[in-house]
Amino acid sequence: MSRVLLVAGGNPSDWPTIEPATYDYFVGIDRGCLHLLEADLPLQLAVGDFDSLSREEYHFVQETAETLIQAPAEKDDTDTQLALQEALQRFPQAEMTIIGATGGRIDHLLANLWLPFEPRFQGVLRQIRLCDRQNSIQYYAPGSYIVPKEPDKEYLAYCCLTPVENLTLRRSKYLLTNQDVPYPTSYASNEFIEEAAAFSFDAGMIAVIQSKDK
């Protein structure tokens, strides 16, 4: 599976460790374009209204990006929504890792966390991954899953983003069996007891978060 890195405008100090060779394509989102270039990473696609850049910064991005898509400042989508849509059109089967999307303004954070609820992204929610220095977030539709432990993470959380039916948690420190969850709930601070955990559920949507302390 191809891997695409999408870089939003959050502070690079909150980025996870990036191994450039593990990604096939790099997308900058608004000010994230400048962050990519300052980190000596490729800028293959630039997307945004670029209202967070000065004129000089915008010209630098414009001259450097392989492809640039300029959006109007007044629009229905956020820059991140537009960038994800463009990336999926180019690489419909790829894993989409989004960084720079979890700090700063809470309205932007919520828009990013709720991306998989949009009808256009629901069919690819398993391909969407949000990451920062402390956390990685992946999304799940009903089914049965194995969750491999990320080497640098300590904690495991099952966040029910909707009401969930028949949630079962296995192969972790804290367990559940056929639990109905009537409202959004975060089963936080669980832990791996081996190199992978397992869970299943019959209805709803769950975000699995692996995290660590600073």
UniProtKB/TrEMBL annotation:
Residue span, Thiamin pyrophosphokinase thiamin-binding domain: 143-207
SMART domains found in the cross-reference section: TPK_B1_binding
Keyword tags: ATP-binding, Kinase, Nucleotide-binding, Transferase
Leader sequence residues: none
Domain of life of the source: Bacteria
A Pfam entry, by short name: TPK_catalytic
Coiled coil: none
GO biological process terms on file: thiamine diphosphate biosynthetic process; thiamine metabolic process
Assigned EC number: 2.7.6.2
Gene3D superfamilies in alphabetical order: Thiamin pyrophosphokinase, catalytic domain
NCBIfam families on file: thi_PPkinase (TIGR01378)
Name of the protein in question: Thiamine diphosphokinase
